[in-house]
Fold:
Amino acid sequence: MAVALEAIALNKRFNNLQASNNVSLAVEQGEIRGVIGPNGAGKTTLVNLVTGVYKADSGDVKLAGESIVRCDMHEIARRGLVRSFQVTRLFGSLTVAENLRTAFLARRPTDGGDGGAQIDSMLDLTKLRPLANTQAKKLSGGQRALLQMGCGFMVPGSCYVLDEPFSGINPVIKDSIIEMILDVNRRHNATFLIVSHEMTIIRRLCPKVTVMMEGKVAAHGSLDEVARLPEVIAGYLGKALE
Amino acid sequence: MSAFASTGFGRSAITILVAAAVLLLLPLVASSFVLHVATIGFYYVILAASWNLLAGYTGQFSLAHHAFAAVGAYTSGLLGYHWGISFWIGIPAGVLLSAAMGFVLGRLVLKMRAIYLAIATWAFAETVHVYLTADYQFTRGELGLSVKPLFGSVDPLKYYFLFLGLTVVLLIGMRALIDSPLGYFMRAIKDDELRAKSLGIDTTKVKVAIFSLSSAIAGLAGGFYAHYTVLLSPQMIDFSEMAKIVIMVVIGGFGTFLGPIIGAAPVQVVMTYLQSWGEWNLAVFALIVIVLMRFSMEGIAAVFTPLWRRMWRDG
Ligand SMILES: Nc1ncnc2c1ncn2[C@@H]1O[C@H](COP(=O)(O)OP(=O)(O)OP(=O)(O)O)[C@@H](O)[C@H]1O
Ligand SMILES: [Mg+2]
Structure:
C-alpha cells in the first residue's frame, strides 16, 4: 500500500509552548484516519503544518511521496490536498453558489468548464439550493460547516485534512457530511485525515486512529485498542469507552 | 440576444451601450462647458472604476491611484515636450510605465495590512509628487508642462466622444474581468485571503496583477487627460485628487460595479459648481464618506439593485 500523506518528525514551537513535538504519522492511500486527543493537544497545529499555514521549525511533510513542506499553501492545495477549518472559513459576502464556484475555479481541472453542473449537484447533495443566492455570512453555523465541506468536494482532491468537521452540527447534516466523505473515498480512493471528538463517528469511519497529547503522538491503532491504553484513559478519555 | 441578456455580463454590457447611445446625443443639447464637465467626468469614472477593482473588489486600499494617472500623463507629456514624440507612442509608453510601477508597488505592499498599505501607497504618491515639483528643469514643476492637444484644438466636442468611447470600452472590459474566474478570486481575497490560498488560489499573483492592471488603466486615462487639459501640474497628485476618487466610489457603492459609474458623475458635477467653496467642499464630502462607510458600503448602488432585478424580471 502506498503512503498518501506522511508527517515526519514535525516540530513547531510557539513562545514557550512546544505545540508539535516530533510528530510523525503516515496515512495510506484510500485510508480514513482519525485524529483524537484533548483540547490543546496540537491537532489543529498538525493540520496547519501539513497544509502549509504554519512553517514547521523542523521535519518534513510528504504528499504522495513528494515533500511539500516548503510549498506555499496554494501549491499544496493545487496538488490535491484539501482542508477544512475548525472555525469555519467561507467568503462571507459571496453567495452560497459563488462560494462553490470559487472553490471549483480555484482548482479547476484543465477541461473543467465553468462548474455549473458541479454547483447544481452540490446544491442538491447539501440541500442548500433554497439558499443558493444567500450570502454565506447569513447562514447558520451548521449550514456554514456544510457549505465549507461542499466547497472541499467541488473538485475531488486526492487527500483531505478535516479539522472538526462535525462540531456544532445537527445530526441530519452530520449524516450528509459522512455520506460525502464515504462517497469521495469510495469513488476516488481519496485519503482522509479527520480530527474529531465524536467517538461514534470516528468508530464508524476510521479503522485506525492517532491519539495526540501535549504536542506528541501518544498512540496509533484502532479506536478500541487505543481506548484501552492507560495513558490515553488518564490523559484524554477519563474513563474507558463503552 | 436573449441568452446574452440572461448573463450578468450581457445585461451590464447592454445597459452600458444603451446609456452610451443616449450620451452620444448630449452634444445636440449641451453647451461646450457642459461637455467639458462631462468629459472630465468620464475621466473620473475611469479612475474611480479602476481604483474600485483594486480597493473595492480585491481589498487593497491604495492611495496612489491618482499618482498612476499622473505617471501616464507626464510620460506622454514629457516625451512630447522634450523630444517631440507623438502621443501614439507617448500614451502607450505611459500605460506601460504605470503598469510596471504598479507591479513593483503591488509587490512591495503585498503582505501589508490595510492601514499600512494605505500609508505606504500614500508615501509613494507623495514621492512622485515631490519629484515632479522638485525636478522642475525636467518636469517644469509648478510652472506647468504644456502638452499638445490631441485633436489640434481643445474644443471639448471631440474629446467628449473620445472619453465616452474610452469609458465604454474600459467599463465593458472591467465587467468581463469581474465575471471571469479572476473576478471571483479578487472578491475571495478581499473576504478571506487565507481561505482563498487554502482553496488553491495564488493570491500573490492575483493581487499584483490587479495592482498592475488598475495602475495601467489609470495611466491610460491620465495619458488622454494630458492631451486634453494641455497643461500638467503636480496638482494632479494633490491628495485631494485621491480623496475625490475615494469619495466617488464610496458614495456610488464600494465594491459594486455600478458604484463608481453613478458616484463619479454627481460628485464631479457638484464639485465643479462648488469650486468657490475651495477645500471646504472636500471636507463636506469627506464627512459624507465617513457616515456612509460606517453604515453601508453600498452607497447609491444599493438603491439601484432592486430596480436592476425588476428591470430584467428576476424575482
Ligand atoms: N498561532 C498560535 N500562536 C500561539 N499559540 C498557538 C497557536 N496555535 C496554537 N497554539 C497553541 O498550541 C497548543 C495546541 O493548539 P491546537 O490548536 O493545535 O490544539 P487542538 O488539539 O487543535 O485543540 P482543540 O481540540 O481545542 O481544537 C495550544 O496550547 C494553543 O494555545
Ligand atoms: Mg483544534
Q: What stands out?
A: The mean pLDDT of chain B is 90. The beta strands of chain B are 145-146, 231-232. The first helix of chain B runs from residue 8 to 24. Residues 8-238 of chain B form one domain.
